[in-house]
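fold-stage: in
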Amino acid sequence: MHSMTSGNATVELLDLVRALLQGDALTARQWVADAYRAGVDWSGVPRPVGLMEAEMAVAAGIVELLAQRANQPAPAWAANVPPALEPVFLVRAAMTLPRLRRLCEEEGPEPLRKRKILAPPDFLTAA
């Protein structure tokens, strides 16, 4: 499943990035729930290897967002990841629904918005 340990986190961030980019919200939410349960140290999450530019922007934005929500520092590598060249929609409906798109652009989580990753404000919060 996911290789996650508390303390020095061995988190397969790649799994989360792929789930998000494939629109697999259920897997993404489960991954986040598992990470919180495992007490992941977000500052120790290793930089993913072999990702394309947009995937890397998603990885950095998501790890910063999750670290922020856990009141932890983000891993140092995330600060050096540039924004995606084109907007990346983590909620497919935002591509076609103007109000949802505007909400994502204006009020989406800052670690995502600054990298052109569009998601609603409550993205990946436990329901």
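fold-stage: in (second)
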Amino acid sequence: MKKYKRIFALLLTVILVFVLGACGNSKNNDGSGDKQASGGEKVELKMIFWDSNQEAGLNDMAEGFMKQNENISVNVEIVPWDEYWTKIQAAAQGGDLPDIVVMHPDQVETYASGGVLMDLTDVLDGEIANRENFPEYVVADFRVDEKDYGIPKDIGTLALYYNKDVFDEAGVEYPSNAWTWEDLSAAAEKLTNEEAGIYGLNADNNGQNFYWNIIWQNGGDVLSEDGKTCTFDSPETIEAMKYAVSFVEKGYSPTPAQFANLTADEYFESGKSAMTFAGSWMLTEYQSVDELNFDVVELPKGKERASICSGMAFSVSANTAYPEEAKKFAEYLGSEEAQLIQAESGAAIPAYSGTQQPWIDQFADFDAAPFVKVEEYGHTSPGFTASTSEATAVLDEYMTQVFSLELPVEEGMKIITDKINETLK
């Protein structure tokens, strides 16, 4: 597993650390300046997340906690992803961050450095949600300056989804876990039907859902091990990107212009693409499409197996009015009991070791094990998702040109590398 510093969030951190720090300093960062509920006083905690598919599971976890703590009630609020971080930032600035926040690994440094998240190191050192029960790289993703600011919630992984009806119509054999890049290309060619408007594969300009995985599979990377240098111009990465873009060049995938009108998910859900790289978090949505007859296998292998495997975590506001109760709830959320409840909801793969099988068992129509298998060879996010990042702006501009075939791959990777390295200075 590879762990990357979230260097592309640093520009945002520098700006926010003073604003958020001013709010966070009103009380001690461990919450010790806040009150604790006495005896029978009713305590109300709020937890916030962005994924409506997981709302039922989170409510079930909260119910499990409330049964054991009758004086504490927990309300789960769902805010769409596009609004989530704006709401979180505004709440942090106003000193009114929800008690429990589901935190993304690319954002934790900003909020921890701003002094608005509680140090949860002691929780992970304890017995109930001990760090040894979780993948080390997920724990490390939420560690800032040797302190832990998140209790691992889940792991999100990728697999190759395929539309069985499109395969049957084209007379193409279904994918297997043994597939290679060559198998993927050959099948994409056979499945592409220009007259019917069907593409073999969604090869979209999306790092997490596509080309990061291709790069890792070729032994390449987008950052050096120390996180200080961009490596898009390495031979391995250039070779991988040429393979990724080849699906667009050969007409086996929609173009960026087409994806602007119809997302990769919509292409797959409507039967207009036969295959797509997509996350475990998409299972619930895809299953809700009645006419979508799909299955999953591990991502095809390049020089090696590789796929993104990152996770979310439960963080606690440093300014919560009830620090002990909020910390106790976070500890419960990281317990085997709570993570089994999450597994049984089918919405997310729990991070707690040994609790994944009930999640797999939720899916009777296909074998969901490929998503869990990724834990053995996964890579965490390199951190290109911070929306204010200069590096992200570089990728948005030039990677789009590469996938649009307006800029040769090798030239594009050189430009991207030089420009991102400028931001790193």
